[in-house]
Design goal:
The chain has 447 residues and is of the alpha+beta class. It has a 5-stranded antiparallel beta sheet with strand order 2-1-5-4-3. The chain has a 5-stranded mixed beta sheet with strand order 7-9-10-12-11. The protein has a two-stranded antiparallel ribbon with strand order 6-8. A hairpin with a 6-residue loop joins strand 11 and strand 12. It is elongated.
Amino acid sequence: MLRRWWERQSHDRRVLVMALAAGAPGMAAALLLLWTGDFTAQVQWTANVLLVGAWGALTLSLRDRVVRPLQTLANMLAALREGDFSMRARVRVDDARDPLSLVHLEVNQLEDILRHQRLGAVEATELMRKVLEEVDLAIFAFDEEKKLRLVNRAGVRLLGQPAERVVGRSADELRLADLLTGPVPRTLELAHPGGTGRWEVRRSRVRQEGLPLELLVLSDLSRALREEERRMWKRIIRVLSHEINNSLAPIKSISGSLATLVERRPPPADFEQDMEKGLSVIQTRAEALGRFMSTYATLARLPQPELAAVDVPELVRRVAMLETRLPIEVRAGPDLVVRADRDQLEQALINLIRNAVDATLEMGEGGAVAVGWELLDGALQLLVDDEGPGLSDNANLFVPFYTTKPGGSGIGLVLSRQIVEGHGGRLELEDRGERRGARARMVLPLV
């Protein structure tokens, strides 16, 4: 019974009871000596009041000395919990070894740490908010009920409605529900009041204030594609203008000279010879312009590959035998079969070997060209090594019609890369490092 009563009491009452109990034996002894001694009644009652009053005052003072610091600590911790960092405990320097002062000092230091962390969190949140507002990506955050909880400026612009009208609405109402399912990343066509075209969809899981959110990020690919298309057209027009002008300028000049020659009366003695030379030049330039346009049309009309099983060793050895200017070393690799368009793959490999031989012959006698294949990271790698001067202008290697070889068309590498990328692979050119020459690397998936 007594224990249950004791457990129901508050801490300050327990301190009060324990303080009274601690002073009770001494008080009882003092009162016993007082009332059994040879004192007058007035002295006994006066001393009795003083002793009992002092006992009660000291007991209450002890309770305050124990309970008040705890109340102060409770108020400080409550302020910290509410985010109020203005309340601090007073700590004197000479009380540094006092346990209670050490507790106050630790709480003050904890307050400093939490204040700096709170300030850092606020600054980080503000920075993130600014970044989200400025990035040109439409960002949406949905809760577990598919309700929109966060949207940035680009997302608002895409939806064509102010933020206060879209926050809290469901993904179905915003016509974004289909984007919250399915594989990512993926590209699809979207049509919203604020934008239409091709968009890349990405998703991730984040947490805000302990609640899980589905983060949906939409990237507008149409603008990037339009910019790339514009740059491509500028490059094509520049190349076409250059090649066409190279042919039209001599044609125009010679045709003017022939017209003047025809008008001369009497015609000069070498009239027929000049006419034949002029017409021959016009014919040559017209044929060169025709070949250029035919080559360009071949690049633009490259058909989709017709995939079939291709034996890699047999293909490499057969293509190596087609080159007669230099013996081609075949570095055998594993027996592999790849699904590809045999004719296109053969043409790409022929172009690479031809370029390697051209580069090697440019350095004179003694150079060699090697072709091989290997299996690396689950993909077929076809390697063509030469002993030429190496790569001098990496930026223009795959620019259509750009060439450094006399009489070159500037189409071989471009066509080869287009063939490889049409098979889902990639074409890389690099210097061989410590050895002279360059390496062409054709990477193709096996499936």
